[in-house]
Amino acid sequence: MALDATFHDLKGKSVFITGGGSGIGASITEGFLAQGAKVAFVGRSDATAFCDEMEARHGARPLFIQCDITDTAALKAAVEQATQAHGAPTVLVNNAANDQRHNTLDVTEEFWDWAIAINLKAYFFAAQAVIPGMKAAGGGAIINFSSISYMMGGSEYPVYVTANSGINGMTRGLAREFGPDRIRVNALAPGWVLTQKQKELWVTPEGLSAHVARQCLKDTLDPEDVVGGVLFLASNVSKMMTGQALVIDGGVVVTG
């Protein structure tokens, strides 16, 4: 992955990423490694091969911690493990999510709890786990992945859309609460990023063509297209930006 910009202040930073071994998260992990950051990430599936690849490519190995982020105790333990290895994280990227398709009338209470636990609850408790260390360090950056689905009123995954909207509210609330500690909290809302999972499960020629037609820019989005925005929000380059939602979607939605 090639990135034109170098964010010098990210070198040596302790970074914690949820879902950092696959999809968009894997590109984010590599993006921080390329900047010289010390990266720890959690995921449910074994990421040893990915870590081997990153070490061979960048000369630095990310710390992989196998963890189900819906297990709050395990998530907090993973943050502590990352702290012991790299120092307290001063960058948190809440990236892990699950956009499983579902219909409102089929949603059970168990499914609701599961979807909210992955797509919203884990974000809050990951932030809660890193904030004390960020306060002690004199500041930090939290990047919460949302999506444009709630802006578009996506109808194929109502609980996911609900969580996405909640992420933006949480982002603004945390930004206000911890701004005095120089902790910046921003959301990043991608459009339809063509990860391998999306291609295998939901991308059809007709659906993709219709979506690209709604974009101002007519290229499809790859995971690498999101990385620059994450690095920008993590870097001191954006030191006076907080409580905001950065949209990277090729121009489907227009904010402001």
From TrEMBL:
Pfam families associated with the record: adh_short_C2
Domain of life, source organism: Bacteria
InterPro entries in UniProt: KR_dom, NAD(P)-bd_dom_sf, SDR_fam
Keywords recorded for this protein, A-Z: Oxidoreductase
UniProt keyword annotation of Oxidoreductase present: yes
Single GO MF annotation: oxidoreductase activity
Positions in coiled-coil regions: none
SUPFAM superfamilies in the record: NAD(P)-binding Rossmann-fold domains
Domain Ketoreductase span(s) in chain numbering: 13-192
Keyword Oxidoreductase: yes
Protein family per UniProt: Belongs to the short-chain dehydrogenases/reductases (SDR) family.
PANTHER family: OXIDOREDUCTASE, SHORT-CHAIN DEHYDROGENASE/REDUCTASE FAMILY (AFU_ORTHOLOGUE AFUA_5G02870) (PTHR43639), SHORT-CHAIN DEHYDROGENASE_REDUCTASE FAMILY PROTEIN (PTHR43639:SF1)
Protein name per its UniProtKB record: NAD(P)-dependent dehydrogenase, short-chain alcohol dehydrogenase family
